[in-house]
């Protein structure tokens, strides 16, 4: 089946119609991303609410992470094979089902199942990024990609105060009824507004590759996310991490020998794609570091001398401007992409994120100071997240666009998982007690060390991006169909 020229699609729609598509894709991506932080306000209450142990309820958070990690590259590949709109609609419908299952659950088993489905729905986001890049008019393309890509960070930041308010003033099940309603709107609007572009490509789904990737990722992510609870030297932790790595290595060997792989590892090995994915890992780490550390510091008792004594709702409200900052930087990111290209824009994003952590090291004495530091860091995240898909899509063939963006999104998710484990190690290794018999709490130095680690990760991410070869100015930017034959290293705007 011959794929139409991507540039032909935008030309057939009015600007108003294109804006409507962008709005729907952006709103729906934000709804999917909200699932990341939906249960954080009630996490400590889940054992009582679900009648089980804290160890069991911790899977309510981990399940979404696992579902999203597996779904993003698989959904991307399905979109490349069968078209993007069908995958978008199915992802939205899965979110409706998952939210409904959680809303009617009072025990841990169904709740975990529902949360897995909510995580799977995050496969919507990379497909939406790929689709808007292909269908938006040229003058809106960078802005649309930047806005939708930023929802991965915005959703988590805005979801915390929203979920905290709902959990504080209503029954906890309302959290999931609200997410079900949002998912229903997301499904209907996707079906009604998003055009069905005939963008499917010949091929078949690599089922063995999908199962192998899922097995390796689940083992690795569970080992990393549970290591601090189980013990890093525990047989279960080491077995899962080592086993996951081995499975992924075997999976990679298999994919290299498959004629129609789930992920084309030869494409991902190209310098622009490889270094962009490494930067995604590091910048994802940096983004999650502030999401973990700042709320804890805001809620730490004032009696410590460095805690700020905020409630979880107040902490969420102090964090909300950081989420809005990512979205507000969308037009700035767009202009940077147009004028500077993806390589420089992503490097700047990493540097600004590192600067935000440096500010946090020295300004952590009042909520407004942490809000300021978070806003600086979030501006860097917004810039970086806008540039990543541009670099990826400029350096992969159209037949692999959604799958490649899905893999990049997975790398961001891997970065956030590793950040969670590292921050937990730091915060539990340097502790103090307010009084005999009281629980140990992190020291001020532990929080500062977390900020330093976050700054270092973001700075290394910026340096990694600079390893991407510059695009030679004398060469014209290749078309999307020429990308498979050469690297468009700098991520300059091309006809994709």
According to CATH, what is the topology of the largest domain? Growth Hormone, Chain: A
Secondary-structure element pattern, one letter each? HHHHHHHHHHHHHHHHHEEH
Overall residue-averaged pLDDT value: 82
Number of helices: 18
Indicate the proportion of strand residues: under 5%
Query: Major β-sheet, in short?
Result: 2 strands, antiparallel
User: What is the domain tally?
Assistant: 3
CATH class of the largest domain: Mainly Alpha
What oligomeric arrangement do these chains adopt?
A: single chain
* Relative helix content: over 70%
Sheet with the most strands: spatial strand order: 1-2
Q: What's the total count of β strands?
A: 2
Could you say which structural class the secondary elements and strand pairing correspond to? mainly alpha
- Low-confidence runs of at least 5 consecutive residues: 1-12, 472-489, 492-496
Tell me what the CATH architecture of the largest domain is: Up-down Bundle
For CATH, the homologous superfamily of the largest domain is named as MFS general substrate transporter like domains
Note the gap between the termini. 19 Å
General shape: globular
Q: Indicate the radius of gyration in whole angstroms.
A: 22 Å
Structure commentary:
By secondary structure, the chain is mostly helical. It has 3 domains: 1-204, Growth Hormone, Chain: A (Up-down Bundle), CATH 1.20.1250; 206-261; 264-496, MFS general substrate transporter like domains (Growth Hormone, Chain: A), CATH 1.20.1250.20. 73% of the residues lie in helices and 1% in strands. The protein is built from 18 helices and 2 strands. The chain has helices spanning 8-11, 15-34, 46-50, 54-82, 84-103, 108-120, 124-135, 138-169, 174-193, 207-230, 235-256, 265-268, 271-299, 312-328, 330-362, 367-393, 401-429, 444-465; strands at 431-432, 441-442. The two termini are 19 Å apart.
């Amino acid at each position: 089946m011959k794929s139409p020229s991507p540039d032909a699609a935008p030309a057939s729609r009015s600007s108003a119609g294109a804006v409507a598509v962008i709005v729907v894709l952006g709103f729906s991506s934000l709804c999917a991303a909200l699932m990341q932080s939906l249960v954080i306000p009630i996490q400590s209450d889940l054992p009582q609410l679900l009648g089980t142990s804290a160890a069991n309820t911790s899977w309510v958070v981990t399940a979404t992470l696992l579902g999203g990690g597996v779904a993003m590259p698989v959904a991307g590949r399905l979109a490349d094979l069968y078209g993007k709109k069908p995958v978008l609609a199915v992802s939205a419908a899965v979110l409706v089902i998952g939210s409904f299952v959680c809303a009617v659950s009072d025990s841990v088993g169904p709740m975990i199942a529902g949360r897995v489905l909510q995580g799977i729905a995050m496969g919507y986001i990379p497909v939406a990024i790929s689709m808007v890049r292909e269908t938006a008019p040229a003058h809106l393309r960078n802005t649309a990609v930047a806005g939708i890509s930023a929802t991965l960070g915005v959703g988590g930041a805005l979801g915390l105060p929203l979920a905290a308010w709902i959990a504080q003033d209503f029954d906890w099940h309302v959290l999931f009824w609200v997410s079900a309603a949002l998912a229903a709107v997301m499904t209907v609007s996707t079906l009604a507004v998003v055009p069905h572009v005939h963008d499917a490509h010949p091929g078949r789904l690599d089922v063995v590759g999908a199962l192998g990737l899922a097995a390796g990722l689940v083992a690795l992510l569970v080992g990393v996310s549970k290591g601090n609870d189980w013990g890093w030297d525990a047989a279960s932790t080491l077995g899962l991490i080592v086993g996951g790595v081995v499975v992924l290595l075997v999976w990679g060997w298999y994919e290299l020998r498959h004629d129609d792989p789930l992920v084309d590892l030869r494409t991902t090995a190209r310098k622009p794609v490889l270094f962009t994915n490494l930067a995604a890992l590091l910048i994802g780490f940096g983004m999650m570091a502030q999401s973990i550390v700042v709320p804890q510091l805001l809620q730490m008792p004032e009696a410590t001398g460095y805690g700020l004594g905020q409630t979880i709702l107040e902490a969420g409200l102090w964090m909300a401007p950081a989420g809005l900052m990512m979205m507000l930087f969308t037009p700035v990111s767009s202009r940077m992409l147009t004028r500077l290209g993806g390589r420089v824009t992503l490097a700047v994003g990493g540097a600004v994120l590192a600067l935000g952590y440096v500010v946090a090291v020295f300004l952590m004495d009042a909520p407004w100071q942490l809000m300021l530091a978070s806003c600086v860091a979030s501006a860097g995240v917004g810039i970086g997240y806008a540039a990543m898909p541009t670099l990826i899509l400029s350096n992969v063939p159209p037949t692999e666009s959604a799958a490649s963006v899905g893999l990049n999104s997975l790398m961001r998710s891997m970065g956030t998982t590793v950040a969670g484990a590292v921050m937990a190690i730091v915060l539990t290794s340097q502790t103090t007690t307010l009084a005999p018999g009281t629980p140990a709490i992190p020291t001020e130095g532990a929080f500062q060390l977390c900020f330093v680690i976050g700054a270092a990760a973001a700075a290394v991410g910026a340096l990694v991006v600079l390893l991407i070869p510059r695009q030679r100015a004398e060469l014209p930017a290749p078309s999307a169909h020429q990308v498979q034959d050469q690297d468009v290293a700098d991520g300059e705007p091309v006809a994709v």
